[in-house]
Design goal:
The chain is mainly α and 167 residues long. The chain contains eight helices and two strands. It has a two-stranded antiparallel sheet with strand order 1-2. 28% of the residues are buried.
Length: 167
């Protein structure tokens, strides 16, 4: 789903559900805190790993960010719409938020898939550094936060997100 569409959904949601905005902001702040801790773990290993990767995540998916409604709404509670941050890539495969030195989105507020999904090399590096258990604890915390957001957004979540909740 494109960022423009997500922004429209966010604006409609904000108008229809002002009663949820304080709780959504609290969840966004918690998410940002957890993601900042994840970023510390990743910053120690990903610059070297990702720059040498021939199939790096950010360069192999033609996406306007991996935002779902819940990711985007949390992002928007703390930041302006990232419309101006998008980059054009001639390869047609790179994430539109991939800049010359990596992701241009704030390190403490990216979409959950970008933060939670890691390749085997990242997992092995975390394990080698004795940090895999710490990452898994933060992963579980991010999952808990996602599950708290979903009921607040139930009337606007995509069918695929609703199906994921059933698993």
């Amino acid at each position: 789903m494109g960022i423009d569409c997500l922004e429209e959904k966010f604006q409609r949601y904000r108008e229809r559900h002002p009663e949820n905005m304080d709780r959504l902001r609290e969840l966004a702040e918690e998410t940002s805190d957890v993601q900042a801790r994840v970023r510390e773990l990743m910053d120690a290993i990903t610059p070297e790993l990702c720059s040498a990767c021939i199939a790096s995540c950010c360069k192999c998916m033609p996406v306007d960010g991996w935002f779902t409604e819940s990711d985007y709404f949390l992002y928007r509670m703390l930041h302006e719409a990232p419309l101006h941050l998008r980059r054009h890539h001639a390869d047609g495969r790179s994430c539109t938020f991939l800049g010359d030195t990596g992701c241009v989105l704030p390190g403490a507020m990216r979409s959950f898939p970008c933060v939670k999904v890691n390749c085997k090399m990242v997992a092995e590096a975390l394990e080698t550094n004795g940090r895999l258990a710490e990452f898994m604890k933060l992963y579980d915390e991010m999952s808990r936060l996602q599950e708290e957001v979903w009921p607040l957004l139930a009337d606007c979540l995509s069918p695929t997100i609703m199906q994921a909740q059933q698993l």
